[in-house]
Amino acid sequence: MIAADIALARILKAEGVEQLFCFPTTEIIEAAAAEGIRVVTARTERIVGNMADAYTRVNDGTKIGVCAVQAGPGTEALFVSAAQAYADSSPMLIVTDGAGSKRAGLPSLSDTVGFYEPVTKWATSINRADRVHEIAARAFTKLRNGRRRPVLLELPRDVAAGQIDEATPYAASRTFRSEADPADVANAIRVLRAARKPVLYVGQGTLWAQASAELLELAEASHVPVMTTTLAKGVFPEEHPLALGIGGNEITGMVDVYLRECDVVVALGASLTPSLAATPIPAGKTIVHCTADPDDLGTEHRVEHAVVGDIKLVLRQLIDELARQGGRPDDGAAAEIAGIYADWIGQWMPKLTSDEAPINPYRVVWDLANTIDRANAIVTHDSGTPRAQLAPFYRAPKPRSYLGWGNAHQLGSSLGLMLGAKVAAPDKLCVAYMGDAAFGMCATDLETAVRERIPVLTIVMNNSWMSTYSKRIPQATERYKVGYMSANYAKVAEGLGCHAERVDRPAEIVAAIRRAVAATHDGTPAVIEFMSKVEYSATKIGAPGP
Ligand SMILES: Cc1ncc(C[n+]2csc(CCOP(=O)(O)OP(=O)(O)O)c2C)c(N)n1
Ligand SMILES: [Mg+2]
Asked: Do residues 213 and 152 share a domain?
């Protein structure tokens, strides 16, 4: 006989779980550690959740990020990260303890399962020790199938101690896929072949389905340009001649032209729900909606042409059907894209190469992109102008070399996300690019990076304020005499054990990045604080210039 918490720890191992992200300790955390699972302990629960979320994403969901926190204040503090993972459709498993059954339901205790229901695919309490296997199997099956979203399991203390048969069998869960109706595929290709100026509008479903090779094959076979949402950034190599770059809250000049001028949009693995992560499709376009989740259909657009199925299998069907119908001629899109890029990036060059001090943040983005080995990096933006500055201009060369977010993005989540990414991909340079307000929301977890030996690179743009809020707040700050946000963040980072530098001259940017990258290679987390100016130029449809 074994205790239920040990049985659950063994199930996690059987499901391929190699690490548990947690704070501080519970029965399941101790049981997992005893079973040889690496326990990564953060300083705050919200960072714990971010780590598990990014760990899953970097593994494309083939390995599930699991986090464990205490019930009550722990699950309450983790909620924001679960909400973010839910909004971005990222599956992670949350395991929590709970009061013993004698105290269950008392009004003095928060109802963990109840308040997690809106931010999970499934939240449940394991109410008997002998149900651990059955409930865990259902949890992992949900995490690996259908729409990817968090799952919460509560293991109350007395249930955790309950004894069950050690020999209870457990088979790891798996993903099941299905193709689309061939008639829908044939119709989609007919619409694509008849199009005057089509665009492939790609969402993160292509990442979860690991369909980047098929996407490349379809684009090259059809000569159709590819844009991605912020969440899917990198699934199509952004320096490919047919790449338009991202269309999120911010867009590239190429997306601006193509999305306005196209007649047909073929959406692939995109929900087409309105959000900060996905540029709305202008009215009057014919849409072919290819998605694994039929719930996506008809959200914002009338369903005229749809293809429902696993997007990797659907892409293969589309490639075969395109050949069967006679292909599609090359209409010279690549040359047009090159021209638009040259014109658009030319407009931005004065900012991207600016010598001004305080430093122009676009200069940091440009120097970062041209200094690090992007093919061996995972980069992410935080909320605020960091997203606006980085996402359109940093060209991601391959899937998961950039983690894009944008539906319900918690300020300060980039650090925890990169900690999780670095645990998943220890050989990659993992970079969190954030503002000073974001730093204030996560900085103490730099100590987690040091203690747990997770050497990430954090870039802090210190502009003494929250750029996008600068129009309204200065009057208020003057009125109430609270002043601007000010601190020496490099000293904070140094105090937490990081390699840290403060840079105030543009000529020093590249050398500082090189030193910081070298520090991470030596195992030390690095922070560079750039003294920067407030700079906000939205790149929107119809206005992608500075
Ligand atoms: C927890 C949370 N609160 C509020 C917001 C809304 N928000 C988005 S960006 C931002 C300010 C960002 O300021 P900073 O990090 O300094 O970056 P900057 O825009 O100045 O470059 C805020 C408050 C959020 N995303 N998350
Ligand atoms: Mg700021």
From this structure: no
Q: Whose CA is nearest to atom 9 of ligand 1?
A: 384
Best CA proximity match to 449, nearest among 500, 373, 511, 407: 500
Structural domain harbouring 393: 353-531
**Closest by CA position to 93, among listed 115, 118, 72, 124:** 124
Residue 406 Cβ inside 6 Å of ligand 1? The answer reads no
* Domain shared by 64 and 195, yes or no: no
Q: Give buried/exposed letters for 455-489 (b at 16+ CB in 10 A, else e).
A: bbbbbbbbbbbbbeeeeeeeeeeeeeeeeebeeeb
Residues 304 and 453 in one domain: no
28 and 96 inside one domain: yes
Give the total number of structural domains in the chain: 3
Confidence band of 26 (pLDDT split at 50, 70, 90):
confident
Residue 472 scores a pLDDT above 60: no
pLDDT surpassing 50 at residue 346: yes
Contacts of 307 (CB under 8 A, 6+ apart): 180, 181, 184, 185, 188, 288, 289, 290, 291, 314, 317, 318
User: Residue 108: which pLDDT band, with cuts at 50, 70 and 90?
Assistant: confident
152 and 211 together in one domain: no
So what's the pLDDT on residue 276?
83
144 lies in the same domain as 255:
no
**From ligand 2's centre to the CA of 250, what distance in Å?**
18
Asked if residue 386 has its Cβ within 6 Å of ligand 1, the reply is: yes
DSSP string, 299-347: SSS--SEEEES-HHHHHHHHHHHHHHTT-----SHHHHHHHHHHHHHHH
Residue 66, pLDDT > 50, answer: yes
| Residues in Cβ contact with 265 at an 8 Å cutoff, skipping those fewer than 6 apart | 198, 199, 201, 259, 281, 285, 286, 287, 288
Arithmetic mean of pLDDT, 279-296: 96
Q: Is 384 in the pocket of ligand 1 (CB under 6 A)?
A: yes
Average pLDDT over all residues of the chain: 94
